[in-house]
Amino acid sequence: MGRFCKVCEHSNRARLELGLANGIGFRRLAQTFPGLSQDSLRRHKINHMSPKQIVELLVGKKLPDEMMQEIRDREADGILHQMMNIRAIAWERLDMAREVGEEKTIQGYLRELRGVIKDEAELLGMLGVKSQHLHINLSQAPEWVEVKAVLLAALAKYPDAQIAVLDALERVGKPMKVIEANGHDRVITA
């Protein structure tokens, strides 16, 4: 059975939320309003108060969506900058740990970096920053046509090898699957 929120049900909910928005400590609010714990106030702020609501409580009026978007963008840039600094520090410390060969420390910084990179990716996704993929058809590039011609010319004395290489080059970029045969992995085309 789910828990009900004591703050949502409280007769002084508006005052409590105003206090939470203004950064009044959970302990102080819990002392001021008997029957509420610091944990219930913390949960309420996290789960039931949106950033927009907090800003509106702080400025005392409902803000237009454009202004809220500007605030979100500014805050997101700041968070992203802080994450980039954390990532840089973690890389420096990882390099130092590698220099002295401290394996446990290396593993710790690798976990830290993985977490920071994951958080950055999530933040960028929330900001709508899409990764950009560049697709290049190498088979039409003049350089590739030249490499292919040189390869085939070198294999001219070996017709079976030439045919095998041509077949392999035709499969480049097509899906492949790995099967196991007699304990060895063999790659075959799908």
Please describe the topology of this protein:
Blueprint: H1 6-9, H2 13-21, H3 26-32, H4 38-48, H5 51-59, H6 65-100, H7 103-127, H8 142-154, H9 159-171, E1 176-181, E2 184-189
Antiparallel strand pairs: 1-2
Account of the protein in words:
The chain is mainly α and 190 residues long. The protein folds into 3 domains: 6-59, no CATH class; 65-127; 138-189, no CATH class. It is 67% helix and 6% strand. The chain has 9 helices and 2 strands. It has a two-stranded antiparallel sheet. Helix 6 runs antiparallel to helix 7. The radius of gyration is 30 Å and the shape is elongated. The two termini are 50 Å apart.
Instruction: Report the sheet with the most strands, covering strand number, pairing sense and barrel closure.
Output: 2 strands, antiparallel
- SS-based class: mainly alpha
Separation, N- and C-terminal Cα atoms: 50 Å
List segments where confidence is low: pLDDT < 50 over at least 5 consecutive residues: 131-135, 185-190
Beta-strand content: 5-15%
The helix content is: 55-70%
